[in-house]
Amino acid sequence: MQSLRQSRARTPAKVKSPAKRSAADHAAAAGALPQWTTAEIEEAFRRFKAARPEPKGELRHINPFTLLVAVVLSAQATDAGVNKATPALFAAADTPEKMAALGEERLQDLIKTIGLFRTKAKNLIALSKKIVHEHGGEVPRTREALEALPGVGRKTANVVLNVAFGEATIAVDTHIFRVGNRTGMAAGKTPLEVETKLDRVVPAKYKRHAHHWLILHGRYVCLARRPLCEKCLIADLCKWPGKTVVNQRSSQH
Ligand code: SF4
């Protein structure tokens, strides 16, 4: 087997044809790729950290409550779309008390550019009331209490625990799900399976930021349709059969 040093002395990969990429994604999703070694995983996160020591999420917020609201709004919507609506929303309501007082109709009006805005408005009003009545107006800090809020699932709870409260949770969204499966780093049929595997394999010292590194990697490099393997920091480590490894030289990592 090649040493890590040898494998890194390759140029980053290009990708195969769309049909082969699609077949490669199916193979990866079926868990057919070889498992990463501990050294490879350590190396991947070392590079992510070197490239971006303090990665941040892209949802704008000003306190734990507005973060929770932004994450609820981001379900099946882009962060950019949510960020367009939230400045006016947070100017009107940046606490659960104010959000509950806005009322559903006014809230709908403020978030109407975001998909599923009616359901989200309903959930946000109910969630705000619950935080006021059951948690003294503070966003709860436990997964159980967060997941008991209307419109809040495991992913949202994980983002809030990580970003607002500094816990080393990994929220598996569509990007992390794809990157975990496609690279072979953490294959799984459900987001929970991918989360559990990542939780097991990501070294403790990288876990706090793993979530953001993987999301940003999926959003800007390992794109769904046409991953930019030729620009990828971890191309030599990735097990995806859809890339074309071009031998020899250059490791700028
Ligand atoms: S992780 Fe990198 S090399 Fe692997 S598929 Fe994604 S972009 Fe390509």
Structural features, described:
Helices cover 56% and strands 2% of the residues. The protein folds into two domains: 2-52 and 170-248, Endonuclease Iii, domain 2 (Orthogonal Bundle); 64-163, Endonuclease III, domain 1, CATH 1.10.340.30. Strands 1-2 form a two-stranded antiparallel ribbon. Mean pLDDT is 91; it is low at 247-252. The radius of gyration is 20 Å and the shape is elongated. Helix 4 packs antiparallel against helix 10. The chain contains 13 helices and two strands, in the order αβααααααααααααβ. The chain has helices spanning 4-8, 18-29, 38-51, 64-73, 79-92, 96-102, 104-110, 117-135, 143-147, 154-163, 174-183, 191-201, 204-220; strands at residues 14-15, 243-244. Iron/sulfur cluster binds at residues 13, 182-183, 221-222, 227-229, 232, 234-235, 238, 240, 243.
Would you spell out the secondary-structure blueprint of this structure?
Layout: H1 4-8, E1 14-15, H2 18-29, H3 38-51, H4 64-73, H5 79-92, H6 96-102, H7 104-110, H8 117-135, H9 143-147, H10 154-163, H11 174-183, H12 191-201, H13 204-220, E2 243-244
Antiparallel strand pairs: 1-2
Helix pairs in contact: 2-11, 4-10, 6-8, 7-8, 11-12, 11-13
Q: What's the gist of this structure?
A:
The protein has 2 domains: 2-52 and 170-248, Endonuclease Iii, domain 2 (Orthogonal Bundle), CATH 1.10.1670; 64-163, Endonuclease III, domain 1 (Orthogonal Bundle). Helix content is 56%, strand content 2%. It has 13 helices and 2 strands, in the order αβααααααααααααβ.
